[in-house]
Amino acid sequence: MSKPKTLVIIQTVSKIGRAISNVIVAFSLIMIAICLALIIYVKNSNSDFQKIYEYIQLFRVYQNYSVYGLYYFLTSTIIFFSWLGFLSGLSSHYFRKQLETGHPFTTKLSKELMTLGILQIVVPFIGAGCDYAVKLLFEAVSHECYFIDMKILFNISLGVFYILTSFICKYGTELLFRENNPIAVNN
């Protein structure tokens, strides 16, 4: 018996979601490693600070800050890619389980998707709080004012989407249970 067309589409989207999540995890780890390497490099050789800072300004517009500005930028980037990689890893885990199950209509998967949605909303705020604390620390040390970039809007939208989808999956689970257990539904 062949799978229903909609289930094939769901499985295809899950495969794509898992692949994208894995790429984001790998990219996040690479970015964290690059930032840590730059922090260590700048810490050990102040002579190339200006050259590194000019390269970074190609990607992000800042005023001319001291070495603390560079440290703040790199630390903020590490915080961002840490929570992005963490959430992408959880998403990849969900997609893997869903692909192994063959469909998203299980109580466990719908609860996991709900949890993932909540984390997609909460974790970026925790990351933004950490980023703000680091910003205050570097401002106190350097007596400069740094721009803080809140990179959380997309994750809030994704979190809401996951939560809504978890309700649909939970409903599908309930329908499957009723179909497979008509006696339990009537009692």
Query: How many distinct helices?
Result: 6
Poorly predicted residue ranges: none
Shape: elongated
Output the structural class: mainly alpha
Q: Mean pLDDT, rounded to whole units? A: 81
What Rg, in angstroms, do the CA atoms define?
22 Å
End-to-end C-alpha gap = 32 Å
The largest β sheet comes out as: none
Helix content: over 70%
The count of β-strands is 0
Order of helices and strands: HHHHHH
Beta fraction? under 5%
Please tell me about this protein's structure.
The protein is mainly alpha-helical and 187 residues long. 83% of the residues lie in helices and 0% in strands. The protein has six helices and no strands. It has helices at residues 5-44, 49-59, 67-101, 107-142, 153-180, 182-186. The longest helix has 40 residues, at 5-44. It is elongated and about 70 Å long. It starts with a helix and ends with a helix. 22% of the residues are buried.
